[in-house]
Design goal:
Blueprint lengths: L2 E5 L2 E3 L5 E8 L7 E7 L6 E6 L5 E3 L7 E6 L4 E6 L8 E11 L2 E6 L3 E5 L2
Parallel strand pairs: 2-11
Antiparallel strand pairs: 1-3, 3-8, 4-5, 4-9, 5-6, 7-8, 9-10, 9-11
């Protein structure tokens, strides 16, 4: 079984930074693509950033140049460095581990960490 625990959220002012962490326990961390999603109140859950097992990285347009995703396979941890934060970045940020194995999709989720950007 795979479990994910996010941390690092908080209340910051516009323009400030936060670094989120997602620690993944269980076997096979290096076999999973890790995604960061976010969900604001009353809105759908949106994909923010992805890092694959091979290190390919993708970002949604609204965070390009401001957010950086990285993974440390030795620590079973994925990070999301968020700079120049804006009020529109306010949301619950959730970590997702995804893998396709023998035609089956495997998805695991953390509980989320709240990020609030406000003056």
């Amino acid at each position: 079984q795979v479990q994910l625990v996010e941390s690092g959220g908080g209340l910051v002012q516009p323009g400030e930074s936060l670094r989120l962490s997602c620690v993944v326990s269980g076997t096979g961390f290096s076999l999973y693509t890790i995604n960061w999603y976010r969900q604001a109140p009353g809105k759908q859950r949106d994909l923010v950033a992805t890092i694959t097992t091979g290190g390919t990285i993708k970002y949604t347009d609204s965070v390009k140049g401001r957010f950086t995703i990285s993974r440390d396979n030795a620590k079973n941890t994925v990070y999301l460095q968020m700079n120049s934060l804006k009020p529109d970045d306010t949301a619950v940020y959730l970590c997702n581990a995804h893998r396709t194995w023998w035609g089956r999709e495997y998805d695991y989720w953390g509980q989320g960490t709240q990020v609030t950007v406000s003056s």
